[in-house]
Structure formats: C-alpha cells, structure tokens
Write a structure and sequence with these properties.
The structure holds two protein chains of two kinds.
Chain A (H helix, E strand, L loop, with lengths): L1 H16 L2 H21 L7 E7 L4 H12 L3 E7 L3 H8 L5 E5 L3 H6 L4 E8 L3 H26 L6 E8 L6 H22 L2 H8 L1 H7 L4 H29 L9 H25 L3 H17 L12 H6 L4 H15 L7 H24 L3
Parallel strand pairs in A: 1-2, 1-3
Antiparallel strand pairs in A: 3-4
Helix pairs in contact in A: 1-10, 2-7, 2-10, 3-6, 7-10, 7-11, 7-14, 8-11, 10-11, 10-15, 11-12, 11-14, 11-15, 14-15
Chain B lengths: L2 H18 L1 H21 L7 E7 L4 H12 L3 E6 L2 H10 L4 E5 L3 H7 L2 E8 L3 H21 L5 E8 L6 H23 L1 H8 L1 H6 L5 H30 L8 H26 L2 H18 L12 H7 L3 H14 L4 H25 L6
Parallel strand pairs in B: 1-2, 1-3
Antiparallel strand pairs in B: 3-4
Classes of the chains: A alpha/beta, B alpha/beta.
Chain lengths: ~375, ~375
C-alpha cells in the first residue's frame, strides 16, 4: 500500500513540477511577493506629503515647522501663502496634511493662552487620516512641552507617557510580515491542490485512477501530500526570509510554530481538494478557489481586526483556518507564546482539516456516479 | 462571409458558451456582489468598544474627572483596576487592549503640572495600537483643556470624510479589488481552454483572424463585467450608504477603462499559458494579492519604499482605487482622474496588444 501511495505521490509531484511554467509560478512569485509585500504592507507613515501655511512667521512657528520637517513621517512639499491653495493641494492628493499656524500663534504662546494650530487632513483614506492626526499631535505635544520647559509657563496638568508591549517601536512590519507567512503558505498550497482533481476530471484521467486498485484513502494521500510537502517547504523559506531579511524576532519555539503551520496546511489542503473534487471543470475549480481564498484572507484579521466585525461575522470567521494560524504566527513570533497556550488555535484547524479531507475523499467517488 | 458576420458568429458562440457553463455568469454577477456584501460588513479599521483597563491607585476628584472622559468616549469600554499587576494580567489574557495608569501621586503631581499618565498598549497589532493611542490622546486633550488649557490647541479638520469612517473609503477600494478578480477570472481561462480542448485548431482552419477571436472573447465578458460593476456600485450606494459625490458618467467611463485593462490581463494570461492549469495558477498569483496589497486600498502607497512604489505602477487596481476613492468621496477631481484614467487606458492597450502578439495563429 505504501508503494502505491508513493507511486501516486511521485506522479502528482511530476504533474505539478514537470511543466516549466507551473514550476516557475510555484517557486518564483511567492518569494518575490514576500519581498515586495513585506515592504509594501505597512501602516506606518513615511514621507507623507504635507504643506505648511504659516500665518505667524515667528521664531516659534518656524521652530514648530522644523519639528515637522525633521520628522521621518512627513515630507514638507509645499509652503502656502493663502487659504486658496489648501483645498487644491488636498483635492489633487499632492498633500495629505496641511498645517495651518494661526497668525496669533506666538502671541498666544507668550501670553500663555492656548495657541491655535489647524490640521487639515485628507479623509479619503480614513485610516491614514487618523494616523496623520496622531503623528501630528505627538509632534505638536513634543514642541509644546519643550516650549513650556524653556520659556517658563505652566505645563499641562497631565502628560501621556506611552509604552507599547511586545512591539515597542509599534512597527507594523512586525505585525504584517508574520501574517504574510500564513498568507503565502495558503496561496501556494491552493495553487498545488486547487485545480488538481478538476484537471484530471476534465481530461478524463480521474476515472482511470478510480478503477485502479488504489483505495480512496490512497488517492486522497497521493493528491494531498504534494500540497502538504510544497506548502511546508515554501513556508520554511518564507519564515527564513522573515527572520533574516526582515529581522522580525522569533521569541517563541519553532515547534509551536511548525505544529501550527502543519495543521494549517492540512486544513488548506483539505479545503482545496474539496473544492477541486466538487468542480466539474477547471474554470469552476478556479472560481471555487477564489471564492474560498479571497474571503479567507480579507476576513482573517490579516489587515483589519476581527474585533471590528459585527458579531455574526465574527462567529463565521471561526470556520476560517487562516484566523487561527494568524494568531499562532503572531503570538509565537512576537509574544513568545508556547504550545500550551495555543491549543485553542490548534484543534479547530485540525477539525477543519479532517472534515475537508473526508469530504474530498467522499466527493471523489460521489461526483462521478 | 463578411467580417461582420464572422464576428457575429463568434460572438454568438461565446455567448452560448457563457450561458451553458453557469460559472462565467457566477464570476461576473455573483462573485462581486457576494464578496462586496461580506467585505462591506466585515472590513473595518474603526476601533470601537476598545477594552481599556484603567488603573487608579488612589481615587480622588481629579482622577475621577480623568476617568469620566473615557466613560463618555464612544471608543472605550473602560474597566477599573486597583493594581497595575491585575491590569497587566488582563492584557496578557487578551481582556484588555490598553492600560491607562494613574499613579498614587496623580493629584499632587497634577497640581504642580506635568503628572505622568502611563499608557500601555498591546503593540502586536501596531495599527490598532496607534489608533487607540490617538483616541486616548483625544480624551487626554479634553481633560487638559478643561483645566486651563494646554500650551497649544490643535483643531483637526478632515476633508471629504469628516466622520473618518473607514467603510466609506474601504468600500470603493473593495470594488476595485473585487473587479480585478472578476475581470481576470472571466478571461484567464477562455483561450487556454480552446487550446487545451483542441478547438483552437478548429478555429484556425476557418477564415477568422486572431483579432476577431480575441474581440469575440472580449466583448461578451466586457458586458458581463460591467454588469457586475453596476451591481457593486448599487450595493455600495444603497446598502452601505457611501455617497457618490462625483458624476455617474465619470464613474462609468473609468470603470469601462478598468474593465478593459482587467480583461486584457486575463486574455494575456490565457495566451501565455495555453493550458488552463497554468493559467489558473498565474491568475491566482498575479491578481488578488497584488490588488489587495499594492493598490493603496488599505496600505498607503506614499508610505512604501520608493522601489515598491515603482512596482505598484504595474497594478491596474492602483489607478482604479485612486479614481474610485476620489469620485465617491471627493467628486470629479480631474487632477486625480485624468492621469489615472490615462494610465488605465495605456495598460488596457498594452495588455490587449501583447495578448494579440502572443496569440498567433500558429501551432508549435
């Protein structure tokens, strides 16, 4: 029996890897995408174009402007001399923030009245808008505390002292890159198994496979193992890149991480094979793969938190293996979590995987009758 | 047979094929509406009901005033703790996303000025952490202003989306991502399928030109894709209440250009791959993730490193996201629409010309 499964496994691997283009799709793009996405997917602000309209023209206002010009988050692209330019710059997206310093700015500062500053933000991207407001507030606060310190005057009653646990620099790359590990692992696994049964169905060779002495479980293993093998190998390469290229710290154990990945790849393989077995044509299989892959990624907590979803949808995400692996990779990488605390994430993936594989095995035969 | 009748015949063939395999109709009409429905509800970056632990070591009138600010804020669900250890334990369990810590000498220090208020956030989700930090800053600024005011008062004004609701900007972006999938999926397999089934050779022996074959594959799917687009816009406007500030015709024209680019990309994939399996793999790899991550739909392009910004220029969704966000939230801003529409048109031409060049009437 072992020899039969091995023979089928070799055949499946050959079917995927023999075609040069298919091989190229499996190996090149995922690694390239890790590099590009690792840099692209960031919520941190860098060089956000901003404009300054300084109505005050005083030493104090120039000092405030210097604080902005020196911040890596912003890049001063224009200086305005009238109100007219503000809307035009924002509308055309040349500037995402316009800082308007009131004409009475330095006078108010010297007489210890709250000096007024207006921050006009482009709200088309609301997340960036909120972040820009936060960054601008921090810079202005730093300036205010410095000013109060050097020019006398009463500091505010309370000052905020912020500290972030697990990710002290609040670098969103640390949050995103472990997520990309899970993302690409799933895509690669689906690439291998998503169309595999549908292709044989369309070519008619699947019926031939069913009349061989191979049992259902053998076919399932032969079809599933290539996805598992290739998925795990690519995952390892991507983890290596996350560690040594992007310098994301791995604080937890490798065992906890790999147990999670193994269960995740099993569940992705199960779902992929199920879709493939259900489809009559490759076009349907491709549609099914997308219908699973896209929601599973967008509703996984990869970019937008699950906690922000309505209650019924949060319940729905319990069926999504991606949800669990994201918790695992982030907890192991950043929080140093061990296997013991991750059981609530492991077992649902195991259940999904077994259910998916069982359904696929059943569909192999059912669909042809 | 005249060229027009030939084209007509091919169009009829393609339309029949679409009609008989319901998966094309499903891709064009069902996929965008279902995905937009799910995502419109599920994708949000607005942190609401943040579970906030507040540690007050020595209760007093000033501390009570400070805490009241959090109870009034719509963003927080505050829970009081007496000791920082308990609050930290709550954060480790995942019961608290942030901790605000007033130490025992808060009242005394505040009278002297500059009392430190500790804010501890869980930094794993850095974006969420920053947004929570911003909300805490707002409450803090309110407290300071009520007590004689700080040194500087900042008046934020948000243009185009004054309530800073993330749905209003995410929904237009989602339309672009979803239509990228639809466009490419519709055409990615159609030429590869003919090659694989051997019907391409049957087509070749007829007098039809490759140009006509491609055109016949493009037009019906274009109509279908625009149908899906119309459905998505209807859902965005009537279900999610995203107000369309710009004009309907600008939106339609931009969508048509984008649809041509997306379908052109699908045809190109199909011509390059010549077999459905590889075409499907290329479609999975090249459409969804780049449109999701490199289009500026959630991740700000201006904040990416220069080299990655250059790469984003080959992603058609990038231009469409920019147009959609402007047309929906700002109006017909031509300084945004014109260059992006030109880029879409250019991409459509390049894809279609390349597909035409590669799909020769030749067997090799």
């Amino acid at each position: 029996m072992f020899a039969r499964v091995l023979a089928l496994l070799v055949k499946e691997l050959l079917a995927v890897l023999r075609d040069g283009r298919s091989r190229a799709v499996l190996i090149g793009p995922p690694l390239l995408q890790l590099l590009v996405f690792g840099y692209a997917a960031t919520f941190d602000l860098n060089h956000v174009p901003m404009a300054i309209y300084d109505q005050d023209h005083s030493a104090a206002s120039r000092e405030l402007v210097a604080h902005f010009a020196g911040a890596p988050a912003f890049e001063v692209v224009a200086r305005l001399t009238s109100d007219a330019g503000i809307d035009r710059l924002i509308d055309s997206r040349q500037a995402a923030l316009v800082l308007l310093i009131d004409a009475r700015f330095s006078r108010d500062l010297l007489t210890h009245r709250p000096a007024r500053v207006q921050a006009i933000v482009d709200g088309r991207n609301s997340n960036t808008a909120l972040l820009i407001e936060g960054y601008a507030n921090s810079i202005i606060n730093d300036f205010a505390i410095g000013w109060a310190g050097s020019h006398g005057g009463r500091p505010p009653e309370a000052v905020l002292v912020t500290r972030a646990r697990y990710n002290p620099a609040l670098s969103s790359r640390w949050f995103i890159v472990p997520g990309i590990v899970a993302l690409l692992t799933q895509v690669v696994t689906l690439l291998v198994v998503g169309l595999s049964v549908a292709r044989e169905r369309e070519a008619g060779t699947f019926d031939q496979l069913l009349v061989t002495p191979l049992r259902q479980i053998d076919i399932l293993l032969g079809k599933g193992l290539p996805g598992l093998l290739i998925g795990m190998i690519e995952a390892s390469a991507i983890i290596a890149a996350a560690l040594w290229w992007f310098d994301v710290p791995l604080r937890g154990g490798v065992g906890a991480l790999y147990l999670g990945l193994l269960l995740f790849v099993v569940s992705a393989t199960g779902i992929g094979l199920m879709i493939s077995a259900l489809a009559a044509t490759q076009q349907q299989a491709l549609l099914g793969t997308f219908l699973f892959m896209v929601p599973s990624i967008i509703l996984s907590g990869f970019a937008t938190p699950i906690a922000n979803m309505p209650g019924w949808m949060q319940t729905l995400t319990l069926l999504n293996p991606m949800r669990y692996i994201l918790v695992i990779v982030r907890a192991v990488f950043l929080e140093g979590a061990g296997m013991a605390t991750l059981w609530p994430q492991y077992w649902p993936m195991a259940v999904i995987g077994v259910a998916g594989l069982a359904a696929a095995g059943w569909l192999f035969r059912k669909r042809t009758i | 047979m005249s060229a027009r009748r030939r084209l007509w015949g091919l169009l009829r063939k393609e339309s029949l094929q679409i009609w008989r395999d319901p998966s094309a109709l499903a891709i064009a009409l069902l996929l965008p509406t279902v995905l937009l429905l799910i995502f419109g509800y599920g994708v949000s970056l607005d942190a609401r009901n943040v579970r906030l632990a507040i540690v007050v070591q020595e209760p007093g009138p000033l501390a009570t005033q400070f805490v009241a600010g959090f109870a009034r804020s719509p963003y927080f669900q505050p829970v009081l703790f007496a000791a920082i250890q308990d609050a930290e334990a709550a954060m480790d369990r995942g019961d608290a996303q942030a901790i605000v810590w007033l130490q025992s000498d808060f009242a005394r220090a505040a009278n002297a000025g500059g009392a430190p208020v500790g804010l501890l956030v869980n930094g794993v989700d850095a974006n969420d952490a920053r947004i929570i930090e911003g909300y805490v800053q707002q409450v803090w600024a309110g407290f300071v202003a009520a007590h004689g005011g700080g040194v500087i008062s900042v008046q934020p004004r948000v243009r185009f989306n004054p309530s800073v609701s993330s749905r209003d900007y995410l929904v237009p972006g989602l339309i672009a991502v979803i239509m990228t999938l639809t466009g490419a999926l519709l055409t990615a397999l159609v030429i590869a399928r003919e090659w694989e089934r051997g019907t391409m050779e049957a087509l070749m022996v007829t007098p039809v030109a490759m140009r006509e074959i491609l055109l016949a594959k493009l037009l019906p799917y274009f109509v279908l894709g625009m149908g899906g687009m119309a459905g998505s816009v209807a859902i965005a406007v009537w279900l999610f209440g995203v107000v369309l500030h710009g004009s309907f015709w600008v939106l339609t024209a931009a969508s048509a250009l984008f649809m041509l680019a997306a379908l052109g990309m699908g045809l190109l994939i199909s011509s390059v791959a010549r077999n459905q399996f590889v075409a499907g793999q290329i479609a999975i790899i090249t459409t969804f993730l780049p449109a999701f991550i490199l289009s500026g739909f959630v991740f700000d392009i201006a904040s990416m490193p220069r080299a990655v910004q250059i790469i984003t220029h080959v992603v058609a969704a990038r231009y469409f996201v920019s147009i959609l966000q402007s047309v929906f939230l700002a109006g017909d801003v031509w300084s945004v629409i014109a260059p992006n529409a030109a880029a879409l048109a250019l991409m459509a031409v390049i894809f279609l010309v390349l597909a035409r060049a590669i799909a020769r009437k030749r067997l090799d």
